[in-house]
Design brief:
This protein is an alpha/beta fold. It is built from 13 helices and 12 strands. Helix 12 links the parallel strand 11 and strand 12. The structure holds ligand A2R. The site of ligand A2R has 23 residues, from helix 8.
Length: about 325
């Protein structure tokens, strides 16, 4: 019996490629020279797509592959995928929740520590010889005993809250609906920011969170405040963030994500009160292996019985 066609969008590890090739006839989008010709010869054979949170499922793929039935995304965020279009076509979409909670929480703590403790400039002070030439580095600030507001209290937000306990924080959170967690709920994001020393963004991207952290929220956080974004660049109004940091109305920023990745505005790169990372929240060998495994497990389960292990909520009924 011939294997169903699988279109790979973006990269995959060797282990993922081996497992996918064993079960499917693999096509790689980035190796297709003439997409229209490929659609004519192979489009109808494609029943599955493996993709990621950045590339999603382009409309030309949905249109060119009329028999597509499942799209397995590598990553928890799937705002790049038009789930309404997938539901309309009966395409099941899966993602990789939970397996990256711990790593993204670690990245969050790393950014908080790097910002409060001047980690990068201190490291430069030591490595460059400035310590010997100029004396001790300036004092930094302690992350302990801070008021920390978390925007988003889902799988990752709760893991962040638990890992933050070593710093003895007062934890607040803002979501659209109150959660069963032992932290104080704030119905108003701006009011939470006004009370907090640190604002951590860990909601999904997409329309409902687009630029939700705006000028007013950033200025409410204040001149001593720190904003940390490990969710999606679109959650923060990047222009307002730059203006608030430049004017001193906001103290610091620790950013793993940006509005137009991989582009980072030069204005942010020029500031020494920001710590910038290239979207590496989950990027360890161990966590990426677990994400890759779940991405392929979803495809294989779909091939076996037509279901996926971890559907996105919008497609769970399919
Ligand atoms: O608002 P709720 O009650 O649905 O709570 C969710 C919250 N959230 C929002 N909070 C405020 N305003 C919104 N417009 C809004 N939309 C969603 O974000 C929930 O507490 C949290 C999302 O939790 P999970 O669905 O469990 O996502 P997870 O696994 O924590 O990942 C969050 C995001 C991913 O979508 C990637 O973009 C990123 O982290 O890596």
């Amino acid at each position: 019996m011939s294997k169903p066609g699988l279109l790979l969008i973006g990269g995959a590890t060797d282990i993922m490629l081996d497992r996918m090739s064993a079960e499917f006839t693999l096509h790689k989008l980035n190796e297709i020279k003439d997409f229209n010709t490929w659609v004519e010869t192979s489009g109808a054979s494609i029943e599955a797509v493996a993709t990621n949170g950045h590339d999603g499922v382009p409309a030309r793929v949905m249109e060119g592959c009329p028999n597509l039935k499942v799209a397995s995304a590598y990553g928890v965020g799937y705002d790049a995928i038009d789930t309404a279009a997938c539901v309309a076509r009966g395409i099941k979409v899966s993602h990789t929740p939970n397996v990256l909670n711990a790593e993204v929480a670690n990245t969050t703590l790393l950014l908080i520590l790097a910002c409060f403790r001047n980690f990068l400039s201190d490291e430069h002070h030591a490595r460059s010889g400035d310590w010997e030439r100029e004396g001790n580095a300036p004092l930094s600030r302690s992350p302990d005993n801070r008021v920390i507001g978390i925007l988003g209290m889902g799988r990752i937000g709760q893991e962040i809250a638990e890992r933050l306990q070593v710093f003895n924080p007062t934890l607040l959170y803002h979501t659209r609906s109150k959660k069963d967690v032992p932290y104080e709920y704030c119905a108003d994001l701006k009011e939470m920011a006004a009370r907090a020393d640190v604002l951590i963004c860990i909601t999904p991207g997409g329309a409902s969170t687009n630029k939700i952290v705006n000028k007013d929220v950033l200025e409410a956080l204040g001149p001593e405040g720190l904003v940390v974004n490990v969710s999606r660049g679109t959650v923060i109004d990047e222009d307002a963030l730059i203006a608030a940091l430049q004017s001193g109305k906001l103290g610091m920023a620790g950013l793993d994500v940006f509005e137009k990745e991989p582009h980072i505005p030069d204005a942010l790169k020029a500031m020494d009160n920001v710590v910038l990372l290239p979207h590496v929240g989950s990027a360890t060998h161990e966590t990426r292996a677990a994400m890759g495994k779940l991405t392929v497990d979803n495809l294989i389960q779909w091939k076996q019985d037509g279901t996926v292990l971890t559907p996105v909520p919008e497609c769970a009924h399919l």
